[in-house]
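Researcher: Structure prediction, please.
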Amino acid sequence: MNSRKLVADTIKGCNTTNRTPLYGWVSANLTNELTAAYGSVEAFEDKYEFDMAHLFSSVETYDQTLLSAARAGEELTPDLLLDISTTDVNDLSRYQSVRDALTHHQTERGRFCYIQTPGIFEALNGVFGIENHLCYLAMYPDELHEVYRRQAEWNRQYAMNMLDLGVDMVHISDDWGSQTTLMFSPTMWRNMIFPYHKITCDAVKKRDAFLSLHSDGCIASVLDGVVELGYDVVHPWQEVAGMPYSIYLDKYQDKLAILGGMCVQSTLGFGDLPRLESEIRRVFSLLKGKRWMCCTTHFVQNHCSLEELAFAFDLAAKLARP
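Model: Predicted structure follows.
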């Protein structure tokens, strides 16, 4: 079974093999170290025969020069943002890096490829700043509905373009959680966030494509809504933020797959190899054979040594592919 089929079957809950898909977000903070030790990040990925690839593009919703000009001398509020046009999402010349990545990962290595896609709340944090954005939810609800609608329509077309290129899954990144709960109320999430995720989610599911959500923190209070939106995968399912795997096993394992399990906040990168081994074995004992792809919960941080990283993936590969 090749990696694309293995991951697809795992997401659907019909993986009948004794193999768990393996992946890791290793590049962002350790590119130089991995290149020095292995020759390239890609060589590390090949060494552990990663089953998945997380693709990115440089295409952004707003031109950064226009945003900088708009911010000059004043606060960029939602009403002002509506005067700034979005970029041309259908300028396919800007997607060459994704085509190249698909050739490398999917065509040449048979990996399951998913594409980073803007969400709604997180996407606008870069425009407003997260503190301002949280205030604007109360101060500018009408304007934000229009800002979010426009973002959602851009996101929908971006996702359609990526599916046309051949990606296997649309991965929407939209951090909602703090360490204990949402950053806003579940009612506000339902009124302000849910409708605009639905625009992209409905379009992706109409294409019979896989749909993944990344949100850090505790999102337990809106998991039923995540299922309602049609998400197939949640990353990372953050135990250390009040989301024990018991919630998943009791209520959601027939509805969602998990991408994650190797925690960069509490487990990987702290120099305690016995504890690291114990934690990896514990998670495998809970999730192996379920709808689970073993992966880091976020990008591995730069305080993680390459020796510890190799130790973790040596063990994970052994447990994933007995």
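Model: The domain at 3-320 is CATH 3.20.20.210 (TIM Barrel).
Researcher: Thanks, that helps.
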